[in-house]
Amino acid sequence: MTHWLCILVQTPAHAALGSVLSYRSELALPPGTLVRVPLGQRETLGVVWDGDAAQATGELDPDKIRAVAGALDGIAPLSAAWQQLLTFTAQYYQRSLGEVALAALPPQLRGLSPAQVQRRLKRRAAQPAPAPTDAARTVDAAPALTPEQQAVVTQIQSHAGPFLLFGATGSGKTEVYLHCVQTLLESNPQAQALVMVPEINLTPQLEARFRERFAPVYGDDAVVSLHSGMTNPQRLKSWLAAHNGTARIVLGTRMAVFASLPHLGLIVVDEEHDPSYKSSEGARYSARDLAVYRGRLENAKVLLGSATPSLESWHQSRPASEGGRYLRLHMPSRVGTAAGDPAGLPLVRRVDMNHQHRHAVFSIPLLEAIKERVARGEQCMVFLNRRGYAPVLHCADCGWKSECPHCSAFRVFHKIDRTLRCHHCGFTERVPRACPGCGNPDIAPLGRGTERLEEHLAELLADVRRPNSVSAEFPAGEPVRVARIDADTTRLKGELQSQLAAVHAGEVDVLVGTQMIAKGHDFRRITLVAAVNPDGALFSSDFRAPERLFSLLMQASGRAGRDAALGARSEMWIQTFQPAHPLYAALKQHDYPAFAQAQLKEREQAGLPPFSAQALVRAEARTQDVAQGFLTTASAAAHSDMAQWPGWADVLEQVTLYPAVPMTIQRVANVERAQMLVESPSRAALQRFLSGWQSVLHATRQGPQGKGLIRWAIDVDPLAI
Ligand code: ADP
Ligand code: ZN
Ligand code: ZN
User: Fold this and answer.
1) CATH code, domain with 517
2) Are 359 and 236 part of one and the same domain?
């Protein structure tokens, strides 16, 4: 008997061909089954999808419908929940279902024939079975929880969540994750946990900790990693282990949110504020937000953790009486210090750069402090925040900055045509010849790179000698060693690990770097952390820049004084032209809630997320005119055409389309890029609008205004504007 099946395949993102195609099969294959199907000239991986193929075939000649080449036997069908997760992702992020779902599967699965998959599965089966696990045996390596940890764990056990664990760096969040995972695994012999971290660099540390805790009891195969730094065979192996239930704990980066986990009971999202959870290509999904959706879908608890939560999550975790949907849990103290004792956290010191030599990169007091620390055999970390940094013009004489007269934002300096442009409202002017405030001709963009900083610092410290007793290999009396860690110095595999090892071994006295060094790494001997020029983010065109700066500085300060013996003396230095800025005042108090409250108030007044929902449409073309013209035409059509659709006037009324503007980085590889912001106070209205506008954008692409356009894409909940 012939069965007509709907099968999901990967078709080009905007191809006219939908991604659910009809095929026939002699076998009845349930939805979720992985199959090989012919597509054009080639054979490709597909997933049997729930749907009415017969209806689709009504329009097609049954003789033209091709047959499924074969099913990937031995791999159980993907669950209905998994299918629903991918359906939601495609809808919400406005991408084709085939693209999203097939990209969520390990690359090797897409490339292997059914026979090859069989061989791999057999090879796995032939391996010795994992050590028998004794469910009665409990993990014994776990330390007793601190009272703060215990209180949090009790809450997690007695509520459904989702939870936002707001805990200082070093407060023992990871220990809470371990504990929750342990409770889950002990409660149910099949249950699985998904633990996500933002960066590949952080996975080895985390894996070591989980492996050490759980491998002795549940076997080595029970803990697997899933991230893009793995080889394709490793990824397939981990994926299969998760899919067939052998893996009880999956550790991974954002892509792991799509892992097939048939017995998912807990999802942990560590450092939930981190922008890396948002994908920046293809379907621009947020793994954190999908984790919350998935938890609800599969009845799994969701635990988001951070010392500086995203303002979205912070807002979601306001009291339930005010509409909050997450339960906020608080761990304010570092492990090993008394509850509420600020001594565990570094002292924050602001240096007013207005009183320093005009062109000084390092202020005299900071330089003295660094010399003093180094002479004592302690380490320092100097970092330059470049992430999300957009140049802002600034006059050092009168303090003028390139503010937009129409927005609470700063206009971005576009070097290419020497203009100042506001990315919110589009207001544009030529760069003034002299400062509009005082006539000073010397207005300059803020900013400086790490490489120049490293060189400069080495010169400044040339006369300082190392003391003895730091490390035997590098005896006393040698010049100070300054090292740099950033994307440039760590391009090769393993370089970051070896550079970090050098820092830990005491071979480095002063470490210079980007935010890469501010995240997650545990530097015990660093007692001074300095941000030399963090002001840029205060005047960024991106309204999220202050949030990111605050979290970066908090994270960086969390690197200092992890060694209890040195902790009381550790310091975080901020060089700033804005010493009275409330952001730095909150930082000095280590007061994230105060900072968050002030920011949220501003956002509410300006109607920005989380008080509104946004999407960006980006267009790329050879000329800026074509890119902007496409967006402008599609925007005009939204108002003229869509308003005529029955029932859509209402939706349109709730949505604001801003003018098309060039992107901050306007041209990349000779491609001109433009973007248009779409905003609505209602997420549902925005979603509804985008689902309809898709077809208008497609039609515009086909029309005269689409001529010369290279591509366009929608970014829902964009993180950078
Ligand atoms: P976070 O994830 O919040 O930065 P960690 O979980 O890494 O904090 O804990 C910080 C340090 O404190 C680690 O060295 C960890 O081993 C230790 N620690 C955490 N919880 C406990 C505990 N209950 N008893 C003893 N040490 C703990
Ligand atoms: Zn001036
Ligand atoms: Zn503006």
Assistant:
1) 3.40.50.300
2) no
